[in-house]
Write a structure and sequence with these properties.
The structure holds three protein chains of three kinds.
Chain A (H helix, E strand, L loop, with lengths): L3 E10 L2 E11 L4 E6 L5 H8 L8 E8 L2 E2 L5 H7 L4 E4 L3 H4 L6 H13 L3 H14 L5 H6 L7 H13 L5 E5 L7 H18 L2 E6 L2 H7 L2 E6 L2 E7 H6 L4 H22 L1
Parallel strand pairs in A: 3-8, 3-9, 6-7, 7-8
Antiparallel strand pairs in A: 1-2, 1-4, 4-5, 9-10
Helix pairs in contact in A: 4-5, 4-7, 7-8
Chain B lengths: L26 E9 L5 E10 L5 E4 L6 H8 L7 E6 L2 E2 L5 H7 E4 L13 H11 L6 H10 L16 H13 L5 E5 L7 H17 L3 E6 L2 H7 L2 E6 L2 E7 H6 L4 H9 L10
Parallel strand pairs in B: 3-8, 3-9, 6-7, 7-8
Antiparallel strand pairs in B: 1-2, 1-4, 4-5, 9-10
Helix pairs in contact in B: 3-5, 4-5
Chain C lengths: L1 H26 L31 H36 L2 H16 L2 H12 L3 H28 L2 H8 L4 H37 L11 H8 L8 H28 L13 H5 L21
């Protein structure tokens, strides 16, 4: 039984199709990548999966998350699924976190709401969540406001919030694009470890092939709202089938090869 | 080549940018330091030179002091210690106009670098007017053409263009006055992968066609390796390593540089089991 | 697009009707302003379109004159508030930290006073007259505009196109004229349009309280005050200025609403931008010519 099953998802804005007949499945513990550039519809797909599509867009097709129809179901059902079943991490931690609330309180919110924790149990759960994302200075971080934290720390807090309720599916939309390269490596490591440790399925969205290669297995390449190619990422990189995939791989190889050359010279 | 790898604890002595000894750099930072009026130094003893025809990369992460150094190199602030030199002599107020005709810049965020209320033609022509170079519309067309945009671009507005196209427009603005040095601050970080390749290629070809030397500020080592012959690594306001790109990125001696290299995601990475 | 432009059209219509009537009043009035021959509180009819007030003056004439004061106040207050506010806001936006913090505190204190209260204090101190009322209202407006402009200027100064202008050799005065003002313009205009309505209400309130235009000059607020006692027996004397006030202020608010929607940058008028042929076409070494022609995509940030 698939954790997530997307079938013929089409998202329209007026007459224009932003996402066109997209289908894929994610089983428990899977690592799936959605690779695409701006305008490919990858982010909209992620929003549709978690039932967070902005108003003004119409979605047709089927998106079943743990059996719940994320397109048609009433808001209450969709909210019930967000958190315990699926959670999402966004690209820009500065806008994903509430600037007026301390970090500790923001992590506590889902814990209180979904796991029903209170008082000392809640506090220790927050500290545990922070330690899990390798923010060991838990007291100071919990007391800090988002603008007092670095980009990497903010993203870790966002991840802590997302996994606080042990979701079965974690959607990460370009989670490391706004970060420095060493921080990016740490966050990717973190996501990888957490997903393995808790058996969380991961849907990782990015335009950066090498980044995806680090954390995903099965991949779907999206362009102009359609999936143009699917397959294990290793195969996609070594033997791209679709011309667009080839373009992406060649682009990534350009810079990769340039670095290789420095090591050889 | 005169660059020598240095031990991690001493600042690099070879700030000559690898050019033949005695060649006058176009632009240089000489033992430059900068502190804000609060005390903490953002830059300490930075020495860096840009020689004609040899692209330089300044590598570092957030908080390393890249933006500060860039502001100093653009004449927007004065160093607290040390000097910025222009063609061998210190950069003074009186020489600023000449300096700006020689040194221009492109910035990271394509959605912040173009005035949304101006037409593209006006945007690209701005340096011509500001630097007394004669506002000739033919020069605007030439600059747009050099970056691969058609002439009718000039009558449109920024919001009609994508991120990659906006960067091209920003590049057109920077090169319209035929400068010799282009400071590019993370010019492709905000762009998609395939667009990144196109803009990097554009920068490389412009360098060759227009006698333009590029100083690239970036944390993307792949782009650095593709574009620059000389690399300087900045950490916490200090240059920890500097030299030929093949040396610095191929056989790094400083632990920070090694860490940077190890963090770059590679295509050959093993997918999780 | 339609619902929003409806606001703008409706608002403009209301405002223009009042302005039109006021302009006409300078050329022609049904009766002389001080003509008290009509008999006290006569109901509408005959020569007197709306009847007469308690002094025998033609109500319609009084209404038109009151309209002059209302429009005059709106224009005057907006001029004072706009010029003072934008200038102060610009200075604050460019100011270094200490000066700017001082500005912020002063502005916040001024804004904490309700416009009406502030105006009352000023007028009470300097004596009631239309001029002082306009100045007082204008000052209160200036504080709000200044705070808005200060924030906008700070945001704009942080943009890269300002840095680009500086390294392009553009002087600071030119930067303000060609980059800063045009970018704050739309937001400030919308704000001023909103404030204009508040200014009219403020003047009417001041006059109602006897702190605005002194009698015998008619102001809608003053007319309301004078019509109070007899509102049940001669309602027209109160309804006329009341409805006129509502029409003008609502008209100004709707205009402000419409203007705001027109200048809202996030509303890209639903345009779909064609994907650029240049991006793909010039990179020939990688792109497969068999690739399908680019279809339209919606451009989003990043």
């Amino acid at each position: 039984m698939s954790l997530l099953s997307v079938s013929g998802l089409t998202i329209r804005s007026g007459d224009t199709k932003l996402v066109d007949d997209v289908s894929f499945t994610v089983g428990p513990g899977d690592r799936v990548g959605l690779i695409g550039e701006s305008g490919s519809g990858k982010s909209l797909t992620a929003l549709a999966v978690t039932g967070l599509l902005p108003p003004g867009l119409t979605a047709t097709g089927e998106v079943r998350l743990d059996g719940v129809d994320m397109i048609g179901a009433p808001e209450r059902q969709r909210t019930a699924v967000r958190g315990p079943v699926a959670a999402i991490v966004f690209q820009e931690p500065l806008t994903a976190l509430n600037p007026l609330m301390r970090a500790g309180r923001q992590i506590a919110e889902p814990l209180r709401r979904i796991r029903g924790l209170r008082g000392p149990a809640l506090r220790s759960a927050v500290n545990e969540a922070l330690r899990e994302v390798l923010l060991d200075d838990t007291e100071r971080i919990a007391r800090s406001y988002p603008h007092q934290l670095s980009g990497g720390q903010r993203q870790r807090v966002a991840i802590a919030m997302a996994i606080a309720c042990r979701p079965r599916l974690l959607v990460a939309d370009e989670p490391t694009t706004a970060l420095d390269v060493t921080v990016q490596a740490e966050i990717l490591d973190l996501l990888d470890r957490l997903a393995t440790a808790h058996g969380t399925a991961l849907v990782f969205i990015t335009h950066d092939l090498p980044v995806a290669a680090r954390v995903v297995r099965d991949t779907h390449v999206m362009r102009n709202g359609r999936i143009v190619e699917s397959g294990p990422i290793g195969a996609l990189i070594d033997h791209p089938g679709h011309p667009y995939t080839r373009t992406l791989v060649d682009s990534a190889r350009r810079f990769d090869a340039a670095l290789e050359r420095t090591a050889r010279d | 080549m005169t660059d020598t790898p240095t031990s991690p604890s001493t600042p690099p002595a070879a700030a000559t940018g690898g050019a033949p000894a005695g060649a006058v750099p176009l632009v240089a930072a000489d033992g430059v330091g900068f502190s804000y009026r609060g005390g903490t130094p953002a830059l300490t003893d930075v020495s860096l030179a840009v020689h004609a025809g040899r692209n330089v990369a300044l590598v570092g992460e957030s908080g390393a002091g890249k933006s500060t150094l860039l502001r100093l190199l653009l004449g927007l602030a004065r160093p607290t210690t040390g000097t910025i030199t222009f063609a061998g002599a210190p950069l003074t107020r009186g020489r600023l106009r000449d300096y700006r005709r020689t040194v221009q810049a492109v910035f990271q965020d394509p959605y912040s670098s173009l005035d949304p209320r101006h037409k593209i033609g006006r945007i690209v022509a701005e340096p011509l007017r500001g630097l007394g170079l004669g506002a000739d519309p033919a020069r605007v067309t030439e600059a747009l053409d050099a970056v691969g945009l058609p002439a009718d671009t000039a009558s449109r507005y920024p919001h009609e263009f994508s991120g990659g196209q906006r960067q091209r427009i920003a590049i057109a603005r920077a090169i319209v006055g035929h400068p010799k040095v282009l400071l590019a601050d993370e010019p492709v970080s905000a762009l998609d992968l395939t667009t990144r390749v196109r803009i990097v290629d554009l920068l490389a070809s412009l360098g060759a066609e227009r006698d333009l030397t590029i100083m690239l500020v970036s944390h993307d080592l792949g782009v650095v390796a593709e574009l620059c012959e000389h690399t300087a690594v900045l950490e916490h306001g200090r240059l920890v390593e500097q030299g030929d790109t093949s040396q610095v990125l191929g056989r790094p001696s400083h632990p920070y540089t090694r860490r940077l290299l190890a963090s770059v995601p590679r295509l050959s990475a093993q997918p999780p089991a | 697009m339609n619902r929003r432009s409806l606001h703008l059209v409706a608002g403009l219509v209301l405002v223009l009707i009042v302005i039109g009537a006021v302009l006409v009043s300078y050329v022609w009035l049904p009766f002389a302003p001080d003509d008290t021959s009509g008999g006290r509180l006569t109901p509408p009819g005959g020569d007197h379109l709306l009847g007469t007030d308690k002094l025998g003056r033609d109500l319609f004439t009084q209404l038109l004159i009151g309209g002059r004061i209302a429009i005059g106040t709106a224009l005057g207050a907006v001029a004072v508030g706009g010029v003072l506010g934008v200038t102060a806001g610009l200075l604050a936006g460019f100011a270094t930290r200490w000066l700017d913090d001082a500005f912020a505190v002063v502005l916040d204190i001024l804004i904490a006073f309700p416009t009406l209260l502030l105006a009352m204090l000023i007028v009470a101190g300097t004596g009631a007259s239309l001029g002082t009322a306009i100045l007082a209202i204008g000052l209160a407006m200036a504080a709000i505009v200044a705070r808005l402009v200060r924030v906008l200027v700070k945001q704009i100064l942080a943009r890269d196109y300002i840095t680009a202008a500086r390294i392009a050799g553009v002087s600071w005065p030119r930067i303000v004229l060609s980059h800063v003002l045009p970018n704050i313009g739309p937001v400030v205009m919308v704000n001023l349009a909103l404030q204009a309505g508040l200014a009219v209400l403020a003047e009417a309130s001041l006059s109602y309280l006897g702190l605005g235009t002194p009698p015998p000059n008619a102001s809608w607020g003053r007319m309301l005050y004078e019509a109070q006692a007899t509102v049940l027996t001669s309602p027209v004397a109160a309804l006329a200025p009341g409805i006129a006030l509502v029409a003008l202020v609502v008209g100004m608010n709707l205009t402000a609403d419409g203007l705001r929607d027109l200048t809202d940058p996030t509303r890209r008028r639903g345009r779909v931008v064609a994907s650029d042929p240049f991006e793909l076409a010039d990179y020939t070494t990688v792109v497969d010519p068999a690739l399908p022609a680019d279809t339209t995509v919606v451009r989003r940030d990043r």
